[in-house]
Amino acid sequence: MPSLATAGAARLRHWLRAHPTAADTLLAAVVFASVLLGTLLGPHTARHPPGPCFVLLSVAACGCLAVRRKNPRAVLAATSALTLIATVAGRDGPPRTQIATAVAVALYTVAARTERTTAWRIVVVTVVGLTGTVMLIGPPPWSSQENLGLLAWTGMAGAAGDAVRSRRAFIAAIEERAVRAELTREEEARRRVAEERLRIARELHDVVAHHIALVNVQAGVASHVMDSCPDQAKQALAHVRQASRSALEELRATVGLLRQYGDPAAPTEPAPGLGVLDQLVDGFARVGLQVEVAAASTVPGGAGSTASVAGAAAVIGPLPGAVDLTAYRVLQEALTNVHKHAGPGARAEVALLREEYSLSLTVLDNGGGLTPDPPGTPGGGHGLIGMRERAAALGGTCEAAPREHGAPGFRVRATLPLQGRS
């Protein structure tokens, strides 16, 4: 039974919220019943029963409450006027301020639906004006219990309406902040997802473009000399195996970034940097690309300069992790482009310059520069874009263009700040 009563009350509230006019009409009937009941139960009813004029005025005042939401100020003015008329008409009898219950409901509605400053002005004018007029022209004495009750009830109705309006505004502000915070959180999540996808795509491109290019060249060599020079074909296939193993290891490390924290299978080896530049150069040397490395440092107390790839990392010194990885990937992509596009017999020159606030990388080749891919080759072209994006992410720059003064070949130059947005 209690559950049925609770369900019925919930359905009734839902229906009343969906039909505000019906709810206000029901409220008007309840207020009229309370006015009539309060009048009949008054101490002076036996000698002075309420007349038809008072009942009609009460019906009119309470009936106005049926439209209190559509025009609350007009309803307040009407109920106040009817209350004054009923008071003046009953001056010769006992005070009948029960009709002011309609004024209290109307005053509550105005205070709950009007801006605070305006609402309080209306409340003060109504309470003071209505109570003062009843005290002056109503049944004596002016300090009767009914007149003081009229002052208290209308004042409390205005205060209750203001409290409800403040609570509604507070809840609306909380809901607005919650919605705004949710939208901001979703936008931030989408931005982070997009940045992470771009970063992983860059890593995968660098790994695949470098190693698959080497595999492609060595596989072509093996296919070309398989019958005439089996030993050379075996050597080329060994290089294919080594390059594919390196590609798998780097792919595994990159995909491992997607593993959850604490996964024991997640990779723990550091990201590649200039410390393994000699391994990168050796990989290109095995496929026939000569790479000369020169490094210099202008930092006070630095290691000076060197023309050996083995000592380049020592000359450059320690770098921030993001700068170290970006420098390695830029060199890897630039040398891969030299190997793919500079033509047979091309050489590459790598120059590293460590300054106090930046690291400069320059890759030169003596080939014919970038050449168009053969017909039927799938489109790509993300290498140069990836280098520029990596440099821009740190606040640096990356340029790729033919060499100056008409010299054959291509030049890639990147400048990475050491104290930028790393």
Estimate percent helicity. 55-70%
Task: Outline the low-pLDDT stretches.
Answer: 369-380
Q: Please give the alpha-carbon distance between the first and last residues.
A: 68 Å
> N-to-C SSE series?
HHHHHHHHHEEHHEEHEE
In words, what does this structure look like?
By secondary structure, this protein is α+β, with helices and mostly antiparallel strands. Helices cover 61% and strands 9% of the residues. The protein is built from twelve helices and six strands. It has helices at 2-18, 20-40, 52-63, 72-89, 100-113, 116-137, 145-225, 230-255, 277-286, 312-316, 321-341, 383-393; strands at 290-297, 305-306, 347-354, 358-365, 397-402, 410-417. A six-stranded mixed sheet has the order 2-1-3-4-6-5. A hairpin with a 3-residue loop joins strand 3 and strand 4 (358-365). Helix 2 (20-40) packs antiparallel against helix 3 (52-63), helix 3 runs antiparallel to helix 4 and helix 7 runs parallel beside helix 11 (321-341). The longest helix has 81 residues, at 145-225. It is rod-shaped, with a radius of gyration of 44 Å. The model is unreliable at 369-380 (pLDDT under 50).
Topology, element by element:
Layout: H1 2-18, H2 20-40, H3 52-63, H4 72-89, H5 100-113, H6 116-137, H7 145-225, H8 230-255, H9 277-286, E1 290-297, E2 305-306, H10 312-316, H11 321-341, E3 347-354, E4 358-365, H12 383-393, E5 397-402, E6 410-417
Parallel strand pairs: 1-3
Antiparallel strand pairs: 1-2, 3-4, 4-6, 5-6
Helix pairs in contact: 2-3, 3-4, 4-5, 4-6, 5-6, 5-7, 6-7, 7-8, 7-11, 11-12
Concise summary:
The chain has 422 residues and is of the alpha+beta class.
